[in-house]
Amino acid sequence: MATMKAVRIHDYGGPEVLRYEDAPRPEAGPGEVLIRVHAAGVNPVDWKVRAGFARDRLKYKMPFIPGWDLSGVIAAVGSGVSRLKVGDEVYSRPDIARDGSYAEYIVVKESEVAPKPASIDHVHAAAVPLAALTAWQALFDAARLSAGQTVLIHGAAGGVGSFAVQFAKIKGARVIGTASKKNHDYLRSLGADEAIDYNTTKFEDVVKNVDVVLDTITGETADRSYPVIKPGGVYVSILMPPSQEKAAAHGIRAAHTFVQPNVEQLKEIGKLLDSGKLKITIEKVFPLAEARAAQELNAQGHTRGKIVLRVI
Ligand SMILES: NC(=O)c1ccc[n+]([C@@H]2O[C@H](COP(=O)([O-])OP(=O)(O)OC[C@H]3O[C@@H](n4cnc5c(N)ncnc54)[C@H](OP(=O)(O)O)[C@@H]3O)[C@@H](O)[C@H]2O)c1
Q1: pLDDT by residue (tens digit) across 31-47?
Q2: Is the CB of 140 under 6 A from ligand 1?
Q3: Ligand 1 midpoint to CA 237 (Å)
Q4: For the CA atoms of the chain, what is the radius of gyration?
Q5: Which ligand 1 atom lies nearest to the CA of residue 257?
């Protein structure tokens, strides 16, 4: 059996359970492609799954490979694959229920794979799919943000927030973002109109009547957000399903989104990247073998933009 290098988890636990080792190289089945992974994005879901937080919902067969963000090149195609061919450069947010991208190879359904934006390298492309799709789906599918509206984005300097700020500006919205002071120049460089330091200022003291709140933090941030939204406005959480009762009491709509693979949206995002309208910020690149250090850094909760694993 052919093997590959991969980072695997044999049991849930702390960062020490991540093992860089030989693993069987997967083969593409019908409707699937085998991708030579060049780079893999690191996201909070990776270490949350590793720690077992999702064990009731996602039944992984041990050992499994984490990581659900990638950029690479098609190495083989399964039967029935018509859109993609060997040698194509692609990026993807693959199915989270299957083995992930902390590996030299991954098998992904053709329906989850989009052409890599031509103007960026694999390391930058791997930083995009999961966080950008989350921001897109939260702002446009769930909140239906439109030009002229005002959006408050909590966690605006993080992976999702960095894309959300830019998408909202491209849409023609006014953007207010929360982040610690050290990230305020960064938020403005992304296009934010206003930045609030959550360490020194209660956002509810300075923000009123927004159309949309995108909340990547939640907890008590959720309850404090409802009163700053105008009647008829929308609160979207990407973490916890919000209280419908509390939202109704404030006359607003509340939604929760969990990112879904979407090739058409990845193509739209790719066009924005290739036109130079959308920028990617990478805080740090680690080699695949140092996935543990990459997850430990991300788990501190203060990533600016994205962290990426370089596989080749
Ligand atoms: N539902 C979904 O499909 C989905 C998809 C992606 C992510 N998520 C979840 O969404 C959350 C954010 O993901 P991410 O990838 O954006 O994470 P991330 O890149 O790790 O974001 C960290 C950011 O949060 C900021 N932050 C920390 N505490 C804050 C606070 N109290 N107020 C405002 N900003 C604060 C930090 O800014 P400072 O350094 O300035 O503090 C940092 O820039 C994670 O919990 C993740 O699991 C859900």
Answers
A1: 999 999 999 999 999 99
A2: no
A3: 11
A4: 19
A5: 1
Span 220-258, pLDDT tens digits = 999 999 999 999 999 999 999 999 999 999 999 999 999
DSSP letter string over 70-83? EEEEEEEE-TT--S
- Give the amino acid at 86: V
C-alpha 155 to ligand 1 mean position (Å): 5
Q: Minimal CA–CA distance to 18: which of 1, 5, 4?
A: 5
How far apart, in Å, do the first and last CA atoms of the chain sit?
22
Structure tokens at 209: 């009547």
Residue type present at position 141: D
pLDDT tens-digit profile of 119-173? Answer: 999 999 999 999 999 999 999 999 999 999 999 999 999 999 999 999 999 999 9
Contact 154 CB / ligand 1 (< 6 Å): yes
Please give the distance, rounded to the nearest whole angstrom, from the Cα atom of residue 152 to the centre of ligand 1.
14
For ligand 1, atom 4: residue with the closest CA: 238
pLDDT digits (tens, 9 = 90+) for 174-197: 999 999 999 999 999 999 999 999
Sign of CA dihedral 259, 260, 261, 267: negative
